[in-house]
Design a protein that fits this description.
Blueprint lengths: L4 H8 L5 H11 L2 H6 L2 H8 L5 H6 L1 H4 L2 H10 L3 E4 L7 H4 L7 E6 L8 E5 L6 H16 L3 E4 L5 H11 L4 E4 L13 H10 L1 E4 L11 H11 L3 E4 L7 H11 L3 E4 L10 H8 L3 E2 L3 H8 L35 H9 L5 E2 H8 L3 H13 L3 E4 L3 E4 L1
Parallel strand pairs: 3-4, 3-7, 4-5, 5-6, 7-8, 8-9
Antiparallel strand pairs: 1-2, 2-6, 10-12, 11-12
């Protein structure tokens, strides 16, 4: 961390943007030289009216670098600077790349083969299921899934990837020591264990709204393409898609119901040229020429698909099911089915059907969704 001390210090100083940092480095060559420069020399680069030169000269009074380093050490955070060979090359190529990345977990070379899956926080059941399925399908092709760990589509994409045994990277709009949203604490732990959590923001930075557009450029910058699953007219996911376009990356969009407000943004993207996306095959078809390891374009067996419920092994053991349990299970699929439909299809008493659903849940074969809807686990 001592090697990165000057980098971390500059990143802590309020107002020092990546663009300003690049200008300062072009003049002074190293972060240590920037911190040791005179105010007049700094003003030659940033302008006499800027408050930044004075803050840099007086950085010891402006930032608490020792506290930052203690937090980094306590949580075993890795700091990856722009000059570090581990810094993702694709991210370094964007306009205003982050000065540095705080990382919990680990980045791997294979993460160069990454696709972002993003969407609205207020996702529908359909949107969450699609995001989970895409995450699993991309994981089967050994493609890293990048998202923002927000509620809704982001979390579903991470979970789908992890359940399929794949790698996923979460980019935060806060410090990596903060769980945002708070209910994603277990998800964050799992991502750290089997992937990586990243942020450009210093430790303990709250999740301010203004941070998320900056976060979004990193999500798209790490990725070969960005998939938007659900997005309203003003969804932040559309900002990520725009950043991807500006960065020369592919943009994909999943179609939804024509009368759903959550589909307005994705349908607008399709009209503007984003590729209509139903499965991971639609994504791989576009990015395969850019993959670092081309053989990963072929999915591992069994191959997930639109008809995933007929090809995936069940989460639990089907042996030993009673007649009513088996009947209920056969009615269900990966698409949500309302309890009334299940009861009507079974032709049995509602109490008997509900009892069978409870037992199936306990056996890990069925999952209940909001609105008294059920799907196969």
């Amino acid at each position: 961390m001592e090697d990165a001390r000057a980098w971390i210090t500059l990143n802590l100083i309020p107002g020092v943007s990546p663009h300003q940092f690049v200008r300062l480095m072009a003049r002074f060559k190293t972060p240590d030289a920037v911190l040791g420069a005179s105010q007049s020399a700094l003003e030659e680069v940033l302008g006499a009216r800027s408050e930044i030169p004075e803050r840099i000269v007086n950085y010891a009074q402006v930032v608490d670098i020792d506290r930052e380093l203690k937090l980094i050490e306590k949580l075993q955070v890795d700091v990856i600077t722009l000059e570090d060979p581990r810094y993702p090359l694709r991210l370094a190529e964007i306009y205003e790349p982050p000065i540095l990345l705080y990382a919990r977990g680990r980045l791997e070379p294979a993460d160069a083969n990454a696709v972002a899956v993003v969407g609205t926080r207020a996702a529908t059941t359909y949107g969450k299921l699609v995001a989970e399925r895409l995450g699993a399908e991309l994981a089967a092709r050994r493609i890293t899934v990048v998202s923002g760990m927000a509620a809704g589509i982001d979390s579903a994409a991470h979970r789908g990837t992890l359940r399929a045994g794949g790698r996923t990277v979460a980019v935060l709009g806060c410090g990596v020591d903060i769980v945002y949203p708070a209910h994603n604490d277990k998800l964050m732990d799992e991502i750290i264990e089997r992937g990586c959590v990243l942020s450009e923001f210093p430790m303990s930075t709250p999740g301010f709204a203004r941070n998320f557009p900056r976060r979004n450029r990193i999500i798209s910058g790490l990725s070969l393409g960005t998939v938007v699953v659900e997005a309203g007219r003003n969804s932040g996911a559309l900002i990520t898609a725009r950043r991807a376009m500006e960065q020369g990356r592919e943009v994909f969009a999943v179609p939804g119901k024509v009368d759903s407000a959550k589909s307005v943004g994705t349908h607008a993207l399709i009209k503007d040229g984003a590729k209509l996306t139903e499965t991971a095959d639609d994504i791989v078809e576009e990015i395969s020429v850019h993959l670092e390891f081309p053989e990963i374009a072929e999915p591992e067996q069994p191959e997930p698909s639109v008809e995933r419920e007929t090809k995936l092994e069940p989460a639990g053991d089907l042996d030993g099911l009673s007649n009513i349990e088996n009947r209920v299970y056969q009615i269900l699929s990966r698409e949500p089915v309302h309890i009334d439909t299940i009861i009507g299809s079974c032709g049995t008493e509602s109490a008997e059907t509900l009892g069978a659903l409870t037992l199936l849940e306990l056996k890990g074969l069925v999952r209940q969704l909001p609105g008294k809807q059920f799907v196969r686990a």
